[in-house]
């Protein structure tokens, strides 16, 4: 499906939903004494978080002092999982964890605060599958010179086998 246009509702996504800041407040509240510092970190993370979905993949960035940027091609995606706890479900949030074959136990990218996470997961699955099936289809489209050589070698081996079987008989 590479080359297919990105659906407008996904192409417009740039920022997380406001409910994500509420979730960050609850997460920071759980740190008790470190609440002010933790909330400040989450506040800046929320306000600097940006998403971009294009033909090649997903771009995600966040941070002020330590800037993080991730670009993940659809073809590298191995698995997509949705996760949420009780408070996240209450706020209508889910985390979309995108995993690659990088070998790490945690996800390569976690998309937070996006509207309609199930539709986003389905979109990512369709792009992932499209990226994996487009290359083999192009490879099988026309016979390559290598394929012609291999067919000739197979034909020669068949004739050698027939000659050897005729000698044994």
Short summary:
With 169 residues, the protein is α+β, with helices and mostly antiparallel strands.
Description:
By secondary structure, the chain is of the alpha+beta class. It has a single domain (8-141), classed as Roll (PH-domain like). It is built from six helices and six strands, in the order αααββββαββαα. It has helices at 8-11, 19-29, 35-48, 86-91, 117-139, 145-168; strands at 50-53, 57-62, 68-73, 77-83, 95-100, 109-112. The strands form two sheets. Strands 1-2-3 form a three-stranded antiparallel sheet. Strands 4-5-6 form a three-stranded antiparallel sheet, covered by helices on one side. A hairpin with an 8-residue loop joins strand 5 and strand 6. Helix 2 (19-29) runs antiparallel to helix 3 (35-48). It is elongated, with a radius of gyration of 25 Å.
Ends distance: 56 Å
Shape: elongated
Strand content: 15-25%
How can the largest sheet be summarized? 3 strands, antiparallel
Number of helices: 6
List unreliable stretches of 5+ residues. Answer: none
Tally of strands:
6
Secondary structural class: alpha+beta
CATH architecture: Roll
Report the radius of gyration as a whole number of Å: 25 Å
Strand order across the largest sheet: 1-2-3
Provide the domain count.
1
Please trace the helix and strand order, writing H or E for each element: HHHEEEEHEEHH
- How confident overall, as mean pLDDT? 88
CATH third-tier fold name: PH-domain like
Just give the CATH class: Mainly Beta
């Amino acid at each position: 499906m590479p080359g297919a246009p990105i659906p407008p509702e996904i192409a417009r996504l740039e920022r997380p939903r406001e409910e994500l800041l509420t979730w960050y407040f609850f997460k920071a509240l759980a740190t008790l004494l470190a609440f002010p510092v933790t909330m400040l970190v989450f506040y800046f993370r929320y306000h600097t978080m940006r998403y971009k979905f294009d033909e090649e993949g997903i771009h995600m960035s966040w941070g002020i002092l330590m800037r993080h940027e991730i670009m993940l091609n659809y073809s590298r995606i191995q698995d997509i999982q949705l996760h949420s706890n009780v408070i996240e479900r209450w706020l209508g949030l889910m985390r979309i964890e995108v995993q690659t074959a990088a070998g790490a136990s945690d996800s390569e990218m976690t998309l937070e605060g996006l509207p309609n996470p199930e539709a986003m997961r389905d979109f990512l699955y369709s792009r992932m599958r499209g990226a994996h099936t487009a290359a083999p289809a192009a490879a099988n489209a026309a016979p390559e010179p290598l394929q012609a050589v291999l067919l000739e070698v197979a034909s020669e081996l068949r004739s050698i086998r027939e000659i050897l079987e005729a000698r044994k008989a």
